[in-house]
Write a structure and sequence with these properties.
Elements: E1 3-7, H1 13-26, H2 35-44, E2 49-54, E3 59-69, H3 71-79, E4 99-110, H4 119-136, E5 139-148, H5 151-159, E6 163-167, E7 173-178, H6 182-198
Parallel strand pairs: 4-5
Antiparallel strand pairs: 1-2, 2-3, 3-4, 5-7, 6-7
């Protein structure tokens, strides 16, 4: 079996449809999104998805959603009172050179049939490469936040030095890293990704 990483303009509507089917395999119903919502997110910034494709069957094995968001949405998620289905396309920012961003690490989803086979690390390695490209364009991160619903998600956040903040009112956990010097800390986050994916 061959695997292909797709991101940015390579992502198709069919890929997004398949990702939504994966969501229904692993998430509770309150986390489900519609196709229209996901298309609007993708149109707002087509860099938000990283996907692993079986290039023999065109099947989505897993995907990651990694979203630059405005301050208002960041603060809402940080309260622990909101499920991220409240996200609107207007909350998503496009990357611009010489700028700093809040990042919402929204989801890492692997088809249950392919779990514990190293695919999460494959996604995170692709994320590292994406961040390195952005870093070279002076695109940095000031804060990263995640609303974590699984033990695997907790493990990944711990390994990447994203710290537990609080429990939410919907039985998940908020993790966050506040990058005080964005240029230096973005580089540190790249290094944390590299250490984790090489273990």
């Amino acid at each position: 079996m061959g695997n292909l990483i797709k991101t940015g303009k390579e992502i198709t509507k069919n890929d997004i449809k398949q990702a939504l089917k994966l969501d229904k395999m692993v998430y509770k119903e309150e986390y489900y999104l519609t196709e229209e919502m996901c298309y609007s997110y993708y149109n707002a910034n087509n860099e938000i998805y990283i996907m692993i494709i079986n290039d023999l069957t065109d099947e989505i094995i897993g995907y990651m959603n990694y979203v630059p968001i405005n301050d208002e949405f960041y603060e809402k998620i940080r309260t622990g009172l909101y499920i991220d289905t409240i996200l609107k396309a207007k909350d998503i920012l496009k990357y611009e050179k010489n700028n700093e961003y809040n990042i919402y690490l929204s989801s890492i989803v692997i088809n249950p049939s392919y779990q514990n086979m190293g695919y999460s690390k494959l996604l995170l390695n692709a994320l590292k490469e994406k961040i390195e490209k952005l870093y070279k364009q002076q695109i940095y991160y000031k804060r990263i936040i995640a609303d974590v619903v699984s033990n695997e998600g907790k493990h990944i956040c711990d390994q990447l030095k994203i710290k537990f903040v609080k429990n939410t009112n919907h039985f998940s956990k908020i993790y966050e890293t506040n990058l005080t010097t964005a240029k230096l800390s973005t580089l540190q986050f790249i290094q944390n990704l590299e250490k984790y994916t090489n273990n």
